[in-house]
Amino acid sequence: MQNGTLLAAVDLGSNSFRLEIGRVDHGQIHRTEYLKETVRQGNGLDSARNLTPDAMQRGWDALARFGERLAGFKRSQVRAVATQTLREARNRDEFLLRARTALGFGIDVIPGREEARLIYQGVAHMLPHDDVSGRERRLVVDIGGRSTEMIIGRALEAQVMESYRVGSVAWSMKHFPQGQFTVGAFRAAEVAAKAVLEDALGSYAPSQWDVAYGASGTIGAVSDVLVASGARPGVVTREGLDWLLDRLLKAGNADKLRMEGMREDRKAVIGGGVSVLRAVFDLLGIREMKVAPGALRHGVLYELLERDDSVADLRTATVARLATRFAVDAAQAKRVGDTASAFFVQFVPAARGGSTLSSAGRALRKLGWAAQLHEIGAQISHSDYHKHGAYILDNADAPGFASNELHHLSQLVLGHRGKLRKLETALDDATLATQLLSLRLAVILCHARRDPEVPALRVQASGRLFTINCRDGWADLYPQSAYLLREEVLAWQKTSWRVELGGC
Predict the structure, then answer these.
(1) Model-level pTM?
(2) What is the C-alpha to C-alpha distance for residues 266 and 248, in angstroms, rounded to an integer?
């Protein structure tokens, strides 16, 4: 990516939405603008786990303001990610439909471990490069509104990642609903937090890391208050947490807090945040935690750099790892992938060349990933292996992928064989429909697990009509493939798409 290019990351957090804009300079990204809106979507989930109308409206309004600032940015320059609140919300699709329009860009709902990985990337890139040997084992903790991420890594590599459903907003709503600070409320909140986090004891024990870092959110807010009281900058200590707890108890209520360094938007969630942070210190035996300058949004920015054509995409490595883990037939996967790509380029000529700078090129790459993984479920059972494969992809730990990206791949894997009725809603997406037909045609032609004669078939797309024409004599040479093609035409008749076959 050229020096001077602007990149933007949007973080749809449970407490705040953030926009970070940075300029690329020799592999580094330097901030040019930062916007933050306190949206508090995390306390806008009702008892049925639906976002309330007010919570959705606050989010849409904030994203509209961000969208105005991002006018003129290209799709390849912007990535927006949503975290725990939208992972939980049952009506997230309703929110996201209008949110994407307001922002003007797509929004990825990322899994918890992917959020953790990106947080580590943001922290690691923003830390001073003093540890040139990469030996320092880092524990990174980020206490957000509805989740807490913990990561252990070295240098730029996250090695152990987990996300826990405990955070400042959720714990404040549950244990300090009226903003009342009492000894009993803090004791109950810390015990409850430890119950959720106790699984971390093995992987994140003090013997597993050298230095603890706290990223963003709660830890930054706590540090601001401690520094204003005269404490050492850049570090949160156990003694500092004890002092802060004492001050909160003396205030008795969030509305009565009068503390230097305490922002107004933090008062309502400080009780939950402090109780979770104290639980983390206790469980992991932390005496002091350094305040890290990086956060999720910085990880997203550096991920944008890594998704550039000139740099290997982490998702490609993830697909290869999954294929190896589930013993995919590599030769057949490549055969199907090459064939599906050849058909897709005929349907969508703009994809020719495979550049990921275009939407067609990105769709072609995702089709290749789906082809590489289309038999991933066969390791479980050959019967209905496409269903097993779709389930694996919807639930896999897949670094680099957002939940919606993985679901897109799972829909292609689910639909690459059998009836299409199971994908009725998904087929409203013209790109997915074209990818799916390309994949199904490839599977048909490669059914004998040998290289097919792709040039014998010419395909074309026009609106919601796909046409397939066979070379004279091809059907006589390959009667089984010709029969399967005719069956494919019948399968698509039960959808809103039409497939016409000529010469077969």
Answers:
(1) 0.84
(2) 13
